[in-house]
Specification:
The chain has 586 residues and is α+β, with helices and mostly antiparallel strands. It has helices at 91-95, 119-128, 160-166, 181-195, 198-206, 209-216, 220-229, 234-237, 242-250, 260-283, 292-299, 301-305, 312-323, 332-348, 350-365, 372-384, 390-402, 414-476, 486-492, 507-514, 531-539, 543-552, 561-585; strands at 5-10, 14-20, 30-34, 37-42, 45-50, 62-66, 71-77, 498-502, 520-522, 525-527, 555-559. The strands form 4 sheets. A 4-stranded antiparallel sheet has the order 1-2-7-6, with no helix packed on it. It has a 3-stranded antiparallel sheet with strand order 3-4-5. Pfam families: SHQ1 (PF04925), SHQ1-like_CS (PF21413).
């Protein structure tokens, strides 16, 4: 806690306490009084005073805050009117708590004999112990003229020498009171490069469903611009709420005397702050939330790094870079759309800009530590913009509209990252295509294999049927060699390819018998040769000769299919002739 600078004044009836706390959170200020014990708290300040007389609360007490000087004026009536309080200028004495925090050693000390208990003594000491922290009076020291500057128009310095220890996270810049503008910029650029996440950027580039919704959101500024183009006055198109009007009444009344360099710095800082605000407005679709203050401060280098820009393009490049490094949505198209929102806002003029600044002030006011930035920047901007040049504001809108920021300008390697991502996606698509083709080919082969198996099975069945048919045809072609052995030949026709019946007869009959029919089956065809002659000769045999043949028994030559295939037709005929000759000799 910081002990603020303070002063006390008195008259016959009242004591006035003036507390200088320029960065206090006024809305949360607390004041406590009990007779001569006075306490004041407003983060990050705390003050406790022990007064030389007693005060009362009877309804005449009052307190107010001067925003111009950053001072609290607190007034209490005296318990005894006309009493003079002595030593109001003895600051150290007033800061000391009542009594003393340590007791003088006793004249008689009882030594511990091991049996006695000192619990009671400790209890007495606890009851009289003062828990108040020691306070040191704050004495303002002059800030060197060469000290680094920041704040509105770069007119402030030395603020963070005491505040940064108590208000952690106000800004990202470490030790801003010890770094020049150039040093702060170098550290900022380095921090942005380290923070940039290429995976996050590529993810938002290709998975842009949420980004598309944000891009289609239509802020109120476009409707207001349409109304102005239709001839409706800006006072009607852009309205202030009752809360905003109340804030405007409480703003300090100041006049700013700025040289050209300071004025340029103020305009460029305004561009930076409004860009950050419009990003938050679009990404939240007009509804601020608990992270809105963080978003505005992170995107605005003015608020997070106390940056002082030198050109409009430098401001836009910084805004683009930070929108691609810090917030949730990091998309190039979204950053470009915010630039168009910025152009529209400046074209609407001072009234719309003031309304945006009041919203920024409200958002930062509700933050735990960032309300200090209102005192450094936003409150002064709210006062200054009301008297800013309308002509310069419109000219600035046209300049912003003409500037085209490229991906090379932000120096984050966006083009290389997008190229690598595209190559990776194409390679992945090719791999997917190859795998898909392989799967399709495999399925086709399986299908053809199934069809081939089915065809082969069908062919086997057909071949089996053909063989059966051929055998039946061969079996159905029976050559009656003799009337007596016809039935015997018919019984053997299913298992034989060639059938030959030779009976013992005369030499002339044998010569005729040599021309016996050879039945050949090839491709289900039956070739019958000399069938008629042999049959006729057989029928002309006399009954006597037939009886002789019967008594001697016939010789039936049967050749199996395997013998026919192994020996061939000519070999079979030769063997048949030899067998017939042998039968004849017998």
């Amino acid at each position: 806690m910081l002990t603020p600078a303070f002063k006390l004044h008195q008259d016959a009836d009242f004591i006035t306490i003036v507390i200088k706390a320029p960065f206090a959170k006024v809305a949360e200020a607390e004041i406590f009084l009990e007779e001569d014990d006075f306490k004041f708290y407003s983060k990050p300040y705390f003050l406790r005073l022990t007064l030389p007389g007693k005060l009362v609360e009877d309804g005449r007490e009052k307190a107010d805050y001067n925003a111009d000087t950053g001072e609290f004026h607190i007034q209490f009536p005296k318990a005894t009117p006309g009493e003079v309080f002595e030593g109001l200028d003895m600051i150290t004495r007033l800061l000391a708590p009542k009594g003393t925090t340590s007791a003088a050693p006793p004249l008689i000390q009882v030594l511990d004999d091991g049996a006695a208990s000192d619990t009671g003594d400790e209890d007495d000491q606890e009851e009289t112990f003062d828990w108040c922290i020691p306070q040191e009076p704050y004495m303002e020291t002059a800030v060197p003229m060469s000290a680094p500057k920041y704040g509105f128009a770069n007119q402030k310095s030395g603020v963070f020498l005491r505040l940064q220890e108590d208000l952690v996270g106000i800004v990202d810049c470490p030790n801003p009171d010890q770094l020049s503008v150039t040093e702060r910029r170098e550290k900022r650029l380095k921090a942005e490069r380290e923070k940039f996440d290429v995976d996050h950027y590529i993810g938002d580039l290709y998975d842009d469903s949420a980004i598309f919704q944000l891009l289609t959101f239509r802020p109120a500024i476009y409707k207001e611009l349409e109304q102005m183009c239709a001839g409706i006055p800006v006072e009607v198109a852009v309205n202030f709420s009752e809360e905003e009007e109340e804030v405007l009444r409480k703003l300090p009344r100041k006049q700013y005397l700025l040289d050209s360099v300071e004025e340029t710095s103020v305009y460029l800082g305004l561009v930076d702050i409004l860009y950050a605000y419009l990003y938050n407005h679009r990404t939240t679709e007009g509804e601020n939330h608990c992270e809105s203050g963080w978003t505005v401060c992170k995107i605005s280098a003015t608020l997070s790094w106390l940056e002082a820009f030198s050109g409009v393009k430098d401001v836009l490049v910084s805004c683009y870079r930070r929108t691609l490094c810090y917030p949730l949505y990091r998309n190039w198209k979204l950053s470009a759309q915010i630039q168009q929102d910025l152009v529209t806002t400046f074209r609407l003029g001072r009234r719309r800009i003031l309304k945006c600044l009041l919203d920024v002030r409200s958002v930062l006011h509700d933050q735990d530590c960032r309300y200090v930035l209102n005192d450094l920047y936003i409150t002064d901007y709210c006062v200054w913009i009301q008297s800013a040049s309308a002509k310069r504001i419109h000219a600035l809108a046209e300049v912003i509209d003409k500037i085209m920021i490229t991906k090379a300008d932000v120096d984050l390697g966006l083009e290389e990252a997008e190229h690598l991502a595209k190559v990776a996606l194409e390679a992945n698509d090719e791999e997917v295509s190859v795998v898909s083709d392989k799967m399709a080919a495999s399925q086709l082969e399986d299908s053809e294999s199934d069809e081939s198996d089915t065809t082969e099975t069908s062919d086997e069945c057909t071949d089996s049927d053909d063989v059966t048919t051929d055998n039946d045809d061969v079996a159905g072609t029976s050559l009656v060699v003799s009337k007596d052995y016809g039935d015997s030949c018919t019984k053997d026709r299913e298992n034989s390819i060639f059938t030959k019946t030779v009976e013992q007869q005369t030499a002339s009959d044998f010569d005729k018998a040599v021309g016996t029919t050879i039945i050949s089956t090839t491709e289900s065809k039956v070739d019958v040769s000399s069938n008629t002659t042999f049959s006729q000769n057989t029928e002309t045999l006399t009954e006597k000769e037939h009886s002789k043949t019967t008594s001697s028994g016939p010789s039936i030559v049967v050749l199996s299919e395997s013998s026919y295939e192994e020996q061939g037709t000519e070999a079979v005929e030769d063997q048949l002739c030899r067998d017939v000759a042998e039968c004849h000799l017998k």
